[in-house]
Amino acid sequence: MPSTPRLTLSNALALGLMTFALFLGAGNLVFPPQVGQQAGTDVWPAALGFLTTGVGLPVLGIVAVAVSGGGLDRILSPLPRWAATLFGLAIYLSIGPMFAMPRTATVSWSMGAEPFFGQASSLDQTLYIIGFFSIAVTLSLMPGRLVDVVGKWITPLLIILLVILAGATVLFPQGPLGSVSPQWQDAPFAQGFQHGYMTMDMLASMVFGILIVNAIRSKGVTDTASLTRYTLLAGLVAGICLSGVYLPLTYMGATSHLVAPGAGSGELIPAYVNALFGPTGNVLLAAVITLACLTTAIGLLTACGEYFHGLMERVSYRTIVIILGVLGVVVALQGLSTLIQVSVPVLSALYPLAIVVILLSLVRPFLPHPGRMFNAALLLTLPAGLLDGLAAAHLLDAWPALSTFKEALPLAREQADWLMPALAGIGLGAILQFIPSPDRRTETA
């Protein structure tokens, strides 16, 4: 009987580092310092909340892919086809051409390249973004080499640079912990939890999971048990590495009030790094930002290209990736602040649904009727998620009754008003598991 192929230690480590690099992109570097800056002396409960959605849930997303035995289509298979298609489109558009993918270029430009241009023009920015996506598209057209290019070459360099930056931040903080912002005083954990949405890593985990599985298969590992084991290993390595990045960056923000008072999304880290290292810091930061954003852009282009090619088989993968790259350029030129402002309402509505899907996917093998559980839970979670999205877009002021209803929901003050409806839906789905099907057949698992 032939032995089961195994990954070498170097390949297994490269797999985990590739996963870390795919997750570590624009939002992972921009938002942790903001959390620390707002939380001030409450930095650690806020950081814990951020780690919950920025690390814990993405790792669970990787696990959900392994448990479900496939990509996002397999995870969403208990839902009606139309609902699964709409949900899948919402996720891929969010992490793809609408928000996350263009953000990799805007952050790379504003935090990595723009400081070297002095008085940069709009033409400089346009040419840089075009060049950024040209490189990302080229590497995305070689998906079979993804683990080698990213995991063995780019990521180790990125980690070395991040260790230097994190070590300097912890050893030489540029000030004491700042004061707590008024809106963070009552619920720093909840605020950090919600800011973790902005990384979009939990949404990406359901997409990147299939890239990880395919990378493992390309090394000759095909049996389900080994695929699951190595996928879980990749998620754990990525989670540990992400935590090692987030905590120092959050501490950076909490101690930034003297060197970067009132700094915006793309200004805090450059100001702090310049205070730590002087002009040399600009070079270090440019390398970190560019490598992190480029690896994430490659992963997103590859994942979205495969997804949309599956929906439109007559259009080649190559053509779709090129189209996505062009769309990325167009949207990125709108600017980082605009992208963040538009994405917040969408993510506020989408994240509660995605959290429920991932958690249910973990227990799916034990459900006799998974479709009933998924449908009931999401049906009750959806209205609460939509209310969160409307509130984030400041549209509830036009409907005082809806605003009052939202504020009356349990855990509204903690910004988790979707949780009780979700739990009620899960409870209803659990009851429905005990009702036999009319034809006495179990739903597809």
Automatic annotation (TrEMBL):
| A molecular function GO annotation | L-leucine transmembrane transporter activity
Q: Which UniProt keywords apply?
A: Amino-acid transport, Cell membrane, Membrane, Transmembrane, Transmembrane helix, Transport
Q: Name one GO biological process term.
A: L-leucine transport
What broad class describes the main subcellular location of this protein?
Answer: membrane
Q: What's the protein called, per UniProt?
A: Branched-chain amino acid transport system carrier protein
Please tell me one Gene Ontology term that the record gives under cellular component. plasma membrane
Q: What does this protein do?
A: Component of the transport system for branched-chain amino acids.
Highest lineage ranks of the organism?
Bacteria, Pseudomonadati, Pseudomonadota, Gammaproteobacteria, Oceanospirillales
In terms of superkingdom, the source organism counts as: Bacteria
Keyword Membrane in annotation: yes
Indicate where this protein resides in the cell.
Cell inner membrane; Cell membrane
A Pfam family this chain is assigned to: Branch_AA_trans
Identify the InterPro entries for this entry.
Answer: Brnchd-chn_aa_trnsp_Livcs
The membrane topology noted for this protein in its Swiss-Prot or TrEMBL record is: Multi-pass membrane protein
Query: For this UniProt entry, which segments traverse the membrane?
Result: 12-31, 43-67, 79-101, 125-142, 154-175, 195-215, 227-249, 283-303, 315-336, 342-362, 374-396, 416-435
Q: Which family is annotated? A: Belongs to the branched chain amino acid transporter family.
